[in-house]
Amino acid sequence: MNKKIAVIGAGNVGATCAMYLAEANFADVVMVDVIEDMPKGKGLDLTQAGPVRGYNAKVLGSNDFKDMQGADIVIMTAGLARKPGMSREDLLTKNAEIISACGKHIKKYCPKSIVLVVSNPLDLMTFHMQNITGFPKNRVFGQAGVLDSIRFRTFIAMELNVAMTDVQAMVLGGHGDTMVPLPRYTTVAGIPIGELIEKKRLDEICERTANGGGEIVKLLKTGSAYYAPAAASVDMCKAIFNDEKKVLAASAWLTGQYGISDIYIGVPVILGAGGVEKIFELKLSKAELASLQGSAATYKEHLQIMGYK
């Protein structure tokens, strides 16, 4: 295979991304981590699974960022994981340092790549990654709303006992407690969700979605979610490689849409070979728009803490 995806970080999210990517069988994978030999062991293990899992993709684990050279897509997963009681924003300073170091390697070895950020706090780290690499903003974006939307879809399917694939949903805003689930744009096999679930119960599901990551952190006790975040990341990679022009929610750079500028935040986009190719501006209610703009304002405050003005 001549296509190549680099995954920075061989922890739970990164290794699971590598596994899902290998099984998707559309590109070779290089998984880079600073922990001595660990990514090499995981890469070899994943490669050896190929004969029985039915893939020919190679998974190389490395401690040398040079092995990323020429990657078409870089998935940034490295960073400290949340622990119980921590918000994504608590991770801000340390993970910004990690992004700074890795962003320089990406710029050096993968100058033409598309960069998908998964590290938390997601929207802030996406902003920082673009600043460090200097890449065009359509080529740097964050995996945010895809994960939040599939959590929303899952909870609705569980509530109604229907196929999860029949549920379509949209979640905007920051990837955190300020996210904005949109029941008005949520359907089950085309049926508006408001006709199937009463408002009070739907509000509870929206609340659970907003706290979806925290719920898993609390249950795991020693880390954060990784299966669903990795699955969402690979879905986005497929959209890029296959130029699917797929409509999904991603943390994208806004230039006035929704009354928001100069920040990354979750909005519906068209994702294709060019990265973020278009941003859709939905007609939101006053309350929904206020929530989205409030989410953006929160992140602008956090950017100031990071030294941005």
Molecular structure report:
With 309 residues, this protein is α/β, with parallel strands linked by helices. It folds into 2 domains: 139 residues, Rossmann fold (3-Layer(aba) Sandwich); 161 residues, L-2-Hydroxyisocaproate Dehydrogenase, Chain A, domain 2. Helix content is 42%, strand content 20%.
Span between termini: 44 Å
CATH superfamily of the largest domain: Lactate dehydrogenase/glycoside hydrolase, family 4, C-terminal
Shape field: globular
What's the helix-strand series?
EHEHHEEHEHEHEEEEEHHHEEEH
- When the domains are counted, the total is 2
Instruction: Count every beta strand, where a strand is a DSSP E run of 2 or more residues.
Output: 14
* Number of separate helices: 10
The percent of residues in helical segments reads 40-55%
CATH topology of the largest domain: L-2-Hydroxyisocaproate Dehydrogenase, Chain A, domain 2
Strand-residue fraction? Answer: 15-25%
Integer-rounded radius of gyration: 19 Å
Give the helix/strand class.
alpha/beta
